[in-house]
Amino acid sequence: MADMQNPHPEDASHPGVIGVGTDHNGVALKDKVVEFLRAQGLAVKDFGSNSTASCDYPDISFRVAEAVAAGEIERGILICGTGVGMSISANKVKGARAALCFSVSVAALSRAHNDANILVIAGLNPDTEDPLAIVEAWFATDFSGEERHLRRIAKIKAYEDKHSS
Prior knowledge:
Elements: E1 18-22, H1 27-39, E2 44-46, H2 57-69, E3 75-80, H3 84-90, E4 98-100, H4 104-112, E5 118-122, H5 131-140, H6 147-163
Parallel strand pairs: 1-2, 1-3, 3-5, 4-5
Helix pairs in contact: 2-3, 4-5
């Protein structure tokens, strides 16, 4: 994960910073993820929630996805009960490529093949593999840059450009 280290950890808007956000269902897991990332020497911007009081996941996912798409943060991690709502809403933001990952292998493939820039984890799914192992695999995997994957991502970008306002 050394390539993601931020030389300015005090500056939470500097590229290289990882944004992490959750709804009320993932606060405890978000705190573990933030602690894990910081232990790896990464700068983290916490987008909340910091409460188990009910909140609306789109409010969090839009902020993280917009920050990623704008280059304000390098990558994002979102957590909610199933991960589905965060995935759907984050992927509404042009430039966001949010991947819901339940396993280490899918996390690695989401980076290698899809150049995912937002990792989504289900906080309440008992079938999800170790979330910190998923995070570690996601950060340890670079985009392959293979022509077929570049072509597919270009098609997604072209669609976004054509259909966004």
